[in-house]
Design goal:
Blueprint: E1 2-11, H1 15-23, E2 33-38, E3 48-53, E4 58-67, E5 72-81, E6 89-98, E7 103-113, H2 117-139
Antiparallel strand pairs: 1-7, 2-3, 3-4, 4-5, 5-6, 6-7
C-alpha cells in the first residue's frame, strides 16, 4: 500500500516559461534548495542530481520519466541524508496551459511506500506548497 500527496497552483505565466524553469530540474526558484549537482543532461532518463537543501538535507534524485510532449517529469529519491522515513518516493510534476488566460496549471504529485508515509506526506505537502509559491514568485510579472 502507498500514500500519495498532490499539490497544485496556477502560475500567471505562459506554459513555455514555467516548463523551462521546471524541466531543468535545478530548482533555482525554490528557496529551500541551496545547490543542485547534475550527472548528465537534465532531460536524460536515468540521469541523477544531488540536491542540497538549506537545512543540510542532501538527496539524490534519478529521473525516471521525461516528456517534452506532455510537459511531465518523474523522479525518484535514491538516497537521502538524513534518511527519509519511507522505503520509496516517486515525484511527478505536470504542467498544463490554461487556455482562458495563457496562465499555467502546475501539479506536483508524490507516491510514497506505506512505511513511514504519514510523516512523509505531511512534509511533502508543505514543501510542495512552498516550492510552488516560490515558482510563482520567480515567474509571475
Amino acid at each position: 500500500m502507498s500514500s500519495q500527496n498532490t499539490e497544485s497552483r496556477v502560475i500567471n505565466a505562459p506554459v513555455q516559461k514555467v516548463w523551462s524553469a521546471l524541466r531543468a530540474q535545478d530548482f533555482k526558484f525554490w528557496s529551500l534548495v541551496k545547490t543542485v549537482e547534475q550527472t548528465a543532461s537534465a532531460t536524460e532518463v536515468g540521469s541523477t542530481r544531488k540536491v542540497t537543501f538549506t537545512d543540510g538535507t542532501v538527496q539524490d534524485y534519478r529521473l525516471v520519466e521525461f516528456s517534452e510532449l506532455h510537459n511531465t517529469l518523474t523522479y525518484e529519491i535514491v538516497d537521502s541524508e538524513p534518511a527519509v522515513p519511507v522505503l520509496s518516493a516517486q515525484h511527478t510534476i505536470r504542467v498544463f496551459r490554461v487556455s482562458a488566460d495563457d496562465s499555467t496549471f502546475v501539479q506536483w504529485s508524490s507516491d510514497f511506500s506505506s512505511v513511514g508515509s504519514e510523516a512523509a506526506v505531511a512534509d511533502s505537502k508543505y514543501k510542495k506548497l512552498e516550492a510552488l509559491a516560490d515558482l510563482a514568485k520567480a515567474l509571475e510579472n
